[in-house]
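Example 5.3 — Thimet oligopeptidase
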Amino acid sequence: MEEAQGEVVATEQSKMKSSKQRRNVIAFTGGAAVLVLAANLAIYAFSSHRKRKSDKKGLQGSSVRINLSASEILKLADRIVAKSKQVHDAVASVPLDKVTYENSISLMADLEAEQFALIQSCLFPKFVSDSEDVRKASVEAERRIDAHVLACSKREDLYRVVKAFSVKGDWTNPEAKQYIKCLVREFERNGLNLTVSKRDEVQRLRAKIDELSLRYIQNLHDDETYLLFSETELEGLPSEYCKASS
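Solution (predicted structure tokens):
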């Protein structure tokens, strides 16, 4: 009987662990949120397009670092932006009549897949660090990454290359097809298929939304408001909770 109960408990614990793993999500705001969402599709496209060696596990840079100092976070953010700019410049320089998956979409998918964990390393500390300097550095890192993502979303040269390949319809796999559609949609949501005046208005509004989102998150983190309750008002709560809160 006890053995059977033990097996049931072990099974339930295993289910709970699996459920927690499936819910392992990190929240982002602004342009970084777009980058993270696109990275999920990029990872699938990356995985489907390239065959890995049997002794290679995971993606390059797949380990999230959670103990970075404030200066290390900012340096990492700058490296992320610099590498991203380098790749996007290379893609934008491809002649439209010579666009292929390998010299355009694949480069962008590889970049996002490889930088996914690096971005998390910069942004995650703002949620959990007990150091105010680290939290502020994390917020600043997000601001820099957001600014870069927004700048990339304004690049008409990038849009033309991605759109040119999209028109060809030369999909390598379903994941890549969906990733390309997301790229085109994001460019066009930023107004690159609109007139210049309407495009400027869209970009101004997007920049304002990103700025307000970051300010809102920072205000939440900095808020030290608290409420005082008497023992009578706390009646009904577990005694352990009341002691821990006193």
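Remark. DSSP finds ten helices and no strands in the chain.
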